[in-house]
Amino acid sequence: MAYIKAGNDAAGHPVQIFYEDWGQGAPVVLIHGWPLDHTMWEHQAVALAKAGKRVIAYDRRGFGRSSRPWGGYDYDTLASDLNALLTELDLTGVTLVGFSMGGGEIARYIGNYGQARVSKAVFVSAVTPYMLKTSDNPDGVPQKVFDQMHEGIAKDRFAFLEGFAKDFYGQSLISHPVSQAVLNWNQTVTTLAAPNATDDCVTSFSGTDFRDDLKKVTVPTLVIHGDKDQTVPFPVSGERTAKMVAGAELKVYEGAPHGLFFTEKDKLTADLLAFIGK
Description:
Elements (H helix, E strand, L loop, with lengths): L1 E7 L5 E9 L3 E6 L10 H9 L2 E6 L16 H14 L5 E6 L1 H13 L4 E7 L18 H27 L10 H12 L3 H13 L3 H4 L6 E6 L11 H7 L4 E5 L6 H4 L1 H12 L2
Parallel strand pairs: 3-4, 3-5, 5-6, 6-7, 7-8
Antiparallel strand pairs: 1-2, 2-4
């Protein structure tokens, strides 16, 4: 197992970030979504490595096998963790691929650290540019939606995550885009995350404004989003992200929910390979 140190927490304890490093070739860094860990990229990671790419997938602090500090779940700190990974592994010419919350890490990383190490960026079902409805972001998601998420986590985190997964994958009485086994896996991964990290990250991905960060993205960029995403609505996020990044390519997956890394896994893999291989 491999770890890099991403500084210390407020108590002076080292924060260790777990990562897997597969294959050889041009580097691709996969950044997972909330409330999962790097294992969500199973299908894409294997395919990219087989296609001759070096694939690095890591666990965000508080999730998976990374350290579980009490704090540090703001995007400046999370971008610093990503910077520590890229610096420690001395990666250049990197394609950054961020799913959902992970798209925020790409935006904030480029906003804070620039693009010297980055060759391309991919935003998949990403929370950028700004989720929260405010006076200067009137088309965002109302605060009460995120308040209900906090309340659900506090009341019964396990039940909340079980219900959240159904919307995440577009599961209903008449629609079964993923198997029960996938839902079981999802529940295991999400409930093993640190409870404070699970809650704090809701505040981060809902309330962080990435609009200025996206203005600094000039590398070739691909935006992928499902038009039936009930978790991160396409008009609020993917559609606007593609408009804000000059020259960005937008791919809209018709009928796809948020968790399209499973429901549309082959299509997503093919689109990543085509874009990264250009």
